Amino acid sequence: MGVPKKKPTRRRARNRRAHWTPRTVTLARCPNCGALVPAHMVCPECGYYKGRQYIKVEKSEK
Hints:
It is built from 1 helix and 4 strands; from the N terminus they run αββββ. The protein is an alpha+beta fold. The chain has a domain at 23-62. The longest helix has 7 residues, at 10-16.
């Protein structure tokens, strides 16, 4: 198995890790109820995704 002959410099290691930053979540409006939902996810408010109900959500009284 290959073994590195020298330790990578701080600059080389940090350059490689430069793209490890967390990404922001893209929010989209649910076409059914209008709530903000992460893109490509089932709406937690109404349970719909792409015009079809995937989960049954019970409305709670506030």
